[in-house]
């Protein structure tokens, strides 16, 4: 039986810990956060590791104390101050590589988890956040659980109640992220993407405006499936329209991140860990997998930037390379990068060449680039044809400048 956990005992465990695993998405316990914030001194000398999602998990663990640290695969705006202070350890890893690191290499003094109450078999469901915790908690000496009656019990990974060191049962709000409002530019991009998707396709989508817009645009399709790291409220529209296949595994995801309406529908989702959802062996067996993701910019070589904005790193690659590579292995699969042709300020998102430094997706992985102006299928084009196809889907006012830039650039290749 786990010990009874209260704030005092919780902070004692934290004071004695050098390495703590803290889950992201809706696995993040707002109760544990409150306890940490109430006694920041307890985090002196502690490093928190986890996969906190930019714009979603806004809590800065490294900001708790000048001697606290945070280890992450995403650099977000919320971590900028701690990064500049030298207290953030950034790992440039994909999701699949992060899973292997947590499973095979990382070791923790304490793992923090938020779970549903134990079922009749004595297992606590990880609920709507099953992504990385199954790899991390077995490598922790101590498991501290927030057993939240508001956490849905889902079809997916769980933790034996007997494996928990100490626990508190307390109702606390789950992290909620409503779908963003409709955006005209992204809706136009989504209509182009929808033209590539037929009945019976399997879709993977990232979080945000693109996901929501694409799901609205394909509501009239039939026998669709979802295989994704994350699903949001946009999924509910597919249920309502009858677009999804009639199968228990029509929707497979690692996490659900939306509002209570989505969480109440989670019994229809098959939840799986990243070691399954992002594995090459899994993805290579999904015929017709369409991996659909957004980007900040694409250059005329086909290189994709999804991380840097105004010269600053604002995110990480996440599962993008995993899903693009996986989709390209499959029969009729497509790796789709979709973005508005211009920023809200009118700057062209298709650029001659990305600045020197890391790229999120190499040109050898380029497949299909989509803007509201069309689709550039790059799979079998030479470099000149590739540049021409990308220029053709740029905003019209930028095409002449891009063509001139390519003429000069191609002479230096």
Automatic annotation (TrEMBL):
Residues 261-404 form the Acetyl-CoA hydrolase/transferase C-terminal domain. GO terms for biological process: acetate metabolic process. GO terms for molecular function: acetate CoA-transferase activity. It comes from the Bacteria. Pfam families: AcetylCoA_hyd_C (PF13336). InterPro entries: AcetylCoA_hyd_C, AcetylCoA_hyd_C_sf, ActCoA_hydro, NagB/RpiA_transferase-like. This is Acetyl-CoA hydrolase/transferase C-terminal domain-containing protein. It comes from Stenotrophomonas ginsengisoli.
